[in-house]
């Protein structure tokens, strides 16, 4: 299977952006799902995450519906921290979180900013296709063009790291 990066046909001058990355992991779908939906694993592979703090739930097991995580973003992106809440969960198959910026006063923004959906597809031979779809609402004040957080090429090395962790080959 090729690891060609998804290129959205939606132009960069609209108010929403879609970023998709995928990778085949040589482990069963449930194993992949459990690892990627465990909050403690997020900073191990997601290049944007500099650290996390579980606000509701347990960091060491797959996050449940309603669980909440604070994600700090790497400083060079100059992004506000994000507060993510699990809004959809189909164990072993699909997991969706909705994120809001955390404002300077520590209060979450009143509206959502992003949606991240992780899906796992059993390929029938003990391997799993893992997909990460990230949808980002673009503020009116942001200049046109892609934002670094929307670059699939920046995320793909993270998926390679995710694969290495799950397959037990991380160096």
Automatic annotation (TrEMBL):
Protein name per UniProt: SRPBCC family protein
Organism of origin: Kutzneria viridogrisea
């Amino acid at each position: 299977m090729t690891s060609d990066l998804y290129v959205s046909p939606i132009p960069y001058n609209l108010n929403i952006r879609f970023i998709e990355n995928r990778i085949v992991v040589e482990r069963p779908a449930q194993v992949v799902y459990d690892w990627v939906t465990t909050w403690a694993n997020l900073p191990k592979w997601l290049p944007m995450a500099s650290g996390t703090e579980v606000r509701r739930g347990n960091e060491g097991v797959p996050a449940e519906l309603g669980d909440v995580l604070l994600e700090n973003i790497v400083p060079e992106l100059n992004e506000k921290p994000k507060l993510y809440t699990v809004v959809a969960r189909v164990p072993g198959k699909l997991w969706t979180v909705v994120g809001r910026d955390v404002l300077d006063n520590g209060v979450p923004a009143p509206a959502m900013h992003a949606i991240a959906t992780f899906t796992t597809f059993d390929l029938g031979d003990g391997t799993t296709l893992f997909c990460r779809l990230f949808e980002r609402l673009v503020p009116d004040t942001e200049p046109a063009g892609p934002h670094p957080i929307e670059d699939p090429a920046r995320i793909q090395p993270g998926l390679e790291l995710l694969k290495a962790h799950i397959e037990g080959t991380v160096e």
